[in-house]
Design a protein that fits this description.
51% of the residues lie in helices and 8% in strands. By secondary structure, the protein is α/β, with parallel strands linked by helices. It is elongated and about 85 Å long. Strand 3, helix 15 and strand 4 form a beta-alpha-beta unit.
């Protein structure tokens, strides 16, 4: 009987691995009931964990007992600037969406606060104090040109048409947009200007635009906070610091397993090798993520060969095929970072047929054939579409009919041998 031995990826422990295994078993039983599906749970035995209860992590709950950190006011401010560095007009657009359109009666010759701001914006370059502060900040983009670009932005025009009751926030929002735009256009890292100097410059621009109220209406402020947090959660910036306890608890095993394997992988490979030897008959290795790297390294190292079977073209023990899913082995090989094979050495003679499954939305999956080459060995990349966003694609192969079609094709070929 053919055994499909599942070698899991990073951060998998106990119940989490059993859930995935049960799913694979159910799917394979419906298609190939003659195939035995078993697990090689190396993570529970040899996976990494915080051996000092998180003592190395600032603010970790197990260390200080204070509970999870919550974002402080400075974290909210950092999140807003992270949003502005990506889209300098974001706050103005949110202001335009949350503040109602101007409803004050028309008075001939009278300028609204929005119109006044646009007029002041056109005169910014004439403000000596502001020009000095601009130069001291080290911005390479001329103040006049930056002001012209902001004045022409539809987002500012829409914001300037807001109700007079909310327009007192405009100078502050416009100042932040102006400075963020200049930082983006100056070249290099937008965060290279110290935050203190950046904020002083915003104060100068706010004053030059007639701003005397530093606060922002709560509706706008709430929208900005929400958008900034959403942005931070998407790109993983400074708000991660405020949530470090929860993040560390979830990710220690994930990243720790990778680092520990690259440093002390012998024990993991030996564990998998023992699991293979304990299975009679042909074995198909199914490795996900780091499990694919472990499986590849084990097969490429020749550790499964004994003196009686070693030799040119010898197969590694009873392993008849390798299937990797969402694997980084091809990337590590190209980076010359694989423990078993230096770049350029290709695959050893006798390496079993290898099918490497990837999804373009899975940013942790890579193609093997372009870097290893086929040579005398069978290396085949198969693209599937898990129809999941980037954040979920890496763990979504187990519910994909395409994947099981590929896997069963491998099992069929093994059974025919």
């Amino acid at each position: 009987m053919v055994t499909l031995l599942f070698v899991h990826g990073t951060g998998v422990r106990g119940p989490a691995g059993e859930t995935t295994l049960d799913r694979i078993r159910s799917e394979i039983a419906a298609r190939r009931p003659d195939v035995r599906v078993e697990s090689c749970d190396w993570g529970s035995a040899l996976g990494s964990y915080l051996r000092a209860d998180g003592a190395s992590i600032p603010g970790f709950v197990a260390q200080d007992g204070k509970g999870p950190d919550s974002p402080a006011a400075e974290d909210e401010e950092v999140a807003r600037w992270a949003l502005l560095y990506t889209d300098p007009l974001a706050e103005l657009e949110l202001f335009a969406l949350t503040a109602s359109a101007a409803s004050a009666p028309f008075v001939p010759g009278a300028l609204s606060r929005g119109d006044t701001l646009l007029a002041d914006l056109a005169q910014l370059a004439d403000d000596d104090a502001l020009r000095t502060a601009w130069a001291e900040a080290g911005l390479d983009v001329p103040l006049a040109r930056t002001a012209e670009a902001l004045a022409a932005a539809p987002e500012l025009r829409r914001a300037a048409a807001a109700d007079e009751g909310a327009a007192s926030a405009l100078p502050r929002l416009a100042a932040r947009a102006l400075v963020a735009h200049a930082l983006n256009e100056s070249g290099g890292d937008a965060g290279r200007v110290p935050a203190v100097r950046r904020d002083v410059l915003v104060d100068h621009v706010t004053d030059a635009l007639g701003g005397d109220v530093r606060g922002i209406p709560e509706a706008v402020s709430a929208a900005v906070r929400f958008s900034a947090r959403l942005f931070e959660n998407a790109v993983g910036n400074r708000l991660a610091v405020a949530r470090r306890t929860a993040w560390s608890g979830r990710s220690a095993g994930f990243f720790g397993d990778i680092v520990r394997y690259l440093v002390r992988g012998d024990a993991v490979r030996a564990f998998v090798a023992e699991a293979i030897r304990a299975r009679p008959g042909p074995v198909v290795l199914l490795g996900h993520s780091l499990g694919g790297i472990v499986s590849f390294d084990l097969l490429a190292s020749g550790a499964l060969l004994d003196g009686a079977t070693a030799g040119a073209g010898a197969r590694p023990g009873n392993v008849t095929a390798l299937v990797t899913v969402g694997s980084q082995a091809p990337l590590l090989y190209e980076l010359d970072a694989l423990p078993s094979r230096p770049f350029g050495s290709g695959l050893p003679a006798g390496f079993p047929p290898w099918v490497n499954v990837y999804d373009r939305r899975d940013l942790l999956s890579y193609q093997a054939a372009p870097v290893f080459g086929t040579g005398a060995s069978d290396v085949r990349d198969v693209e599937v579409d898990n129809r999941q966003p980037v954040s979920a694609a890496h763990s979504s192969y187990w519910g994909n009919e395409q994947f099981y079609t590929v896997l069963c094709g491998v099992l069929d070929r093994v059974a025919e041998q």
